[in-house]
Amino acid sequence: MKKGDHLFLVDGSGYIFRAYHALPPLTRKSDGLPVGAVSGFCNMLWKLLREARDTSVRDTPTHFAVIFDYSSTTFRKEIYPEYKANRSAPPEDLIPQFGLIRQATKAFNLPCIEKEGYEADDLIATYARMAEAVGAEVTIISSDKDLMQLVTPLVSMYDSMKDKQIGIPEVIEKWGVPPEKMIDLQAMTGDSTDNVPGIPGIGPKTAAQLLEEFGDLDTLLARAGEIKQQKRRENIIQYAEQALISRQLVTLKTDTPIDVGLEDFGLEPQNGPKLVAFLKSMEFNALTRRAAEATGVDASEIEAANLKIEAVAEARGPDLDSAGSDASPEAATASSQMVVSSKPPSSNVSATPADLVKARTDEALSAKIDRSAYTTIRDVASLQIWIDEAMASGIVAFDTETTSADPMQTEIVGLSLATRPGKAAYIPINHKSRDGDLLGGGLLEHQIPEAEVFRLLKPMLEDASVLKIAHAMKYEWLVMHRHGIDLHPVDDTMLISYVLDAGEGHHTMDSLCDRWLGHKPLAYKDLVGSGKSSLTFDKVEIERATEYAAEDADVTLRLWRLLKPRLVADGLSSVYERLERPLIPVLARMEERGISVDRQILSRLSGDLAQSAAAIEDEIYKLAGEKINIGSPKQMGDILFGKMGLPGGSKTKTGQWSTSAQLLEDLAAEGHELPRKVVDWRQLTKLKSTYTDALPGYIHPDTKRVHTSYAMAATSTGRLSSSEPNLQNIPVRTTEGRKIRTAFIAAPGNKLISADYSQIELRVLAHVAEIPQLTQAFADGIDIHAMTASEMFGVPVEGMPSEVRRRAKAINFGIIYGISAFGLANQLSIPREEASQYIRTYFERFPGIKDYMEATKAFARQHGYVETIFGRRAHYPEIRSSNPQLRAFNERAAINAPIQGSAADIIRRAMVRMDAALKDAKLTARMLLQVHDELVFETIEDEVEATLPVIREVMENAAMPAIALSVPLQVDARAAHNWEAAH
DNA sequence: GTCCGACCGTA
DNA sequence: TTACGGTCGGACG
After folding, report:
1. Structural domains in chain A?
2. Handedness of CA A100, A106, A109, A115 (dihedral sign)
3. Where in this chain does the record put each 5'-3' exonuclease domain (predicted)?
């Protein structure tokens, strides 16, 4: 090697862990072997080497090596036995990848370097200094701060994941000190992930400031007495020795004995067949193709390499010898080789996702939760230690404690973090004393100021390499967004559970904790009480709050470790990653925007309704002959069917007379006056109490808009639900009801756009059941209910009586709902035999429907769940019940779920894509509401015409490219000043 | 104060 | 005949 050469040193071990956490989990298709980190690693090497051939890129390597940790026992353990003693075993689905990445390195024809007793960092330091000594340039492919001490004018670092060069200025910018002072800085701050002690209370900021003032650690220790802050001075004096040990630990060895010299790192040409064989064995299809093209080999002629998984110890995380496993140092460091396709013999090394899930399930149940082990963070330095640990580990579970369940109204009281199972802390921020004056208690002491907490947390919360985990992340996201934080990337244990187990009970943290961890966490109610005497969380004692809040973060992290691998094992990763996780920020922003509701219109309507209802009330009292509570079905039933002796139809299951609208309508049709009045009265009072009177109470005091809350994990089918207020059941069917919608208005200068799918569920049915007449009718754009009627009854579409079409329409809906003769008879008010005959006729005309329904039932019976076209599952654990009614109910639901659920998935896909599509088109339209098959937007008037086609385009193509539907999707979109007119 | 059933608004 | 959430009355404590 000589001056002008350029050596690339890849921190292979560092890369593995970072890639594992930062990249989406990926498994080999054929057998589920986890290969996410291998994939990231190969792509990175490919990119680095491709640029090496590209002469237009300046910084190209002439020499190249990939460096790995060898084992966990290094010379540092002799200096300080506790070094890295806090490391837990690596994730099980990472273990097989250690060996694979080494094989990948060899497949790329690159030197693969490791040395017993030394860490990769020491080898990198040694090689970097050697190359520098002969005047060559060095690029270290890593973002590890431990390597930053090596940076010089000739040595720089490159963060391949963020595509960021790290030179001297970047080090100074990030740490406040030049590279040569990094060792002293690390010696002072310590490193919680490696268990390097440092000096308590000294974080990077303080350390940089002290180094600025005193020059170096030795001088600082010598002149520590000059430090003004008492606590800091005491700590530095008391822990001086510890700082010196820490310095030894963090100082990289530049004289590591080496077996391979720089001259052997010269970049060799690719061995095309060898590389392609490896990539093929990993089933990295895109990269295989690229590699074959670039090296000029025919991939189809090359057989996939016959891979073996070597058990390899990695000092970075896997402390295999202390993990209590049977992986002895010998087994770990030598090459106890296992063929991938066979089960690993009596080993806890998980080769398949199922093994991993099994291991994690056992782990979750056996590990006990100890609330007394949690920490309360009351000062900036301690907080920084936790943040550093989160940054280093790349994973953190968190939970906010707030004053309200409504993220739009709430104040943050505190925040908890968990970095490892059992390791969690609570940061009290706004706890108040309970016995305050009338204004409420004052802020308690020893809490870090809110602004400071957010300032410190923000970089971590927004760091692309740190995964933030919460239970019900949308709430956290929204609270954080309102504090100016763009939380990402995220995982949500509630949504993971929902994807895995929709239909198997609720997905609250308490129920999951009980189910999976066999543990009952502290109940919120026990802290704050209930009812009138309940407190807001800011009045909870900090000690109690710590136990509760930290436990939530701890439990969230434990649940994540258990549930996340199940996504891979069950083949549900894409449902989670495409339909659930990306919807979190989309829905959060919709909730945050809210919609404008006109108070005056509602108030006027309320008055009108009150008047009309009062008039009807008087007439009802007259007809009934006494004053009763009309709103009481019990009292109304007694009057109608007891006192007045009308023919009562059915009784409810509690033995009361049924007074359903349907039944009263039937009585009215027979000429009875009172039932008609009751039906009218009910409609008016329903509109008044549920809508005109309740909605104004939801207008936000600051935004003056109404902010609903969408539940992402509430339904068994994949639909959303809306509450507080429910904006998915605003009246539309009756003239009176529709007036409510006129109160939903666009902001001044804006319009509302309503875009809804036409007959989406019937279209989905036509697709999944493959019904030629239906697909043809949708392709031709003809009236689907009329076509159905025509097929069934032999009546031509032209001049069809409306009653005939109405019946066909009811049957079509009935099919989607898992039709029964009883239900159809009820709906159409016809005898059950007649309904039965309709259904028989329908199935004769559309035999594919019958086949589809039978096949769906059989699938559900066999598997206990059904699937949408995108693979979302809905579970029906009671479908094999011996109770015929219960079983039949589950069968109908199972028939409905793939149809309703596929439609729900389609609109979810549209929503996930919508913001980017509008942005690309440079439009300002914003999504406000979702009503199952409808999206409501708000946009400035001038952009309406340009916006409509963009919305339609996204919605109509939402199934693509995952699914090419056999029917077109049709979207009707209109703009107006209010929702009624736009719909 | 809390729970449940009846009823009814939406897709 | 599918999927939801809100309001009310009434019974329970």
Report:
1. 6-173+253-301 (3.40.50.1010), 371-581 (3.30.420.10), 596-719 (1.20.1060.10), 760-902 (1.10.150.20)
2. positive
3. 5-268
